[in-house]
Specification:
The chain has 167 residues and is mainly β. It has two domains: 84 residues, Elongation Factor Tu (Ef-tu), domain 3 (Beta Barrel), CATH 2.40.30.60; 62 residues, SH3 type barrels, CATH 2.30.30.240. It is 5% helix and 49% strand. The chain has a six-stranded antiparallel barrel with strand order 1-2-5-4-3-6. The chain has a six-stranded mixed sheet with strand order 10-9-8-7-12-11, with no helix packed on it. A hairpin with a 2-residue loop joins strand 9 and strand 10. It is elongated, with a radius of gyration of 20 Å. The protein starts with a strand and ends in a 7-residue tail after the last strand.
Length: 167
């Protein structure tokens, strides 16, 4: 099964011409302006649709999707997630990673001690937090340069400098 990136959720209709209001689930909401196709994650499966028009209103993205031409049509899309194929993902700057690439990486200290695997990434205001589990033990690692020294996706490892009080 092909994996997709979730980029937003349709939360409501917008107007009477079939437009939908999307809550963006991406760090790059400007990406919608370049979006020509998107996948609707419907209960019946993925459906690729064309994006006819994009605009922005407050924290929302307003989309007009081809084939959905009335408020009644758009109403059927409430709570549906919008997804793109990995090749449509925004190219990240060097040193930045998608959360899905960080999950399941093993975390080692500079001394070579295995702390566990990343099971979740908490997105906080100041910085992300890697949730690392080893059995029942859970460690929260701040994703900051003073702590995270290297992320090696090829070897599926993260090397950290263990600050006092982290474990």
């Amino acid at each position: 099964m092909e994996e997709y990136f979730t980029i937003g959720q349709i939360v409501n209709t917008q107007g009477i011409k079939g437009e939908v209001r999307v809550y963006p689930l991406t760090d790059f909401p400007e990406r919608y302006g370049k979006l020509k196709e998107v996948f609707l994650d419907l209960p019946t499966g993925m459906k690729e649709v064309k994006v006819e028009k994009t605009s922005y209103h407050k924290q929302f993205v307003i989309l007009k999707i081809e084939g959905y031409d009335s408020c009644n049509d758009a109403e059927k899309l409430k709570n549906v997630y919008l997804k793109v194929k990995p090749e449509q993902a925004v190219k990240l700057p060097e040193g930045h990673y998608f959360i899905r690439d960080i999950i399941d990486l093993e975390v080692f200290t500079e001394e070579g001690d295995l702390l566990g695997k990343v099971t979740d990434v908490l997105q906080m205001t100041a910085n992300d937090i890697y949730v690392v589990k080893n059995g029942e033990k859970e460690i929260l690692i701040p994703a900051i340069k003073d702590v995270v020294k290297e992320i090696n996706l090829a070897d599926k490892k993260i090397l950290i400098h263990l600050l006092e009080g982290l474990c």
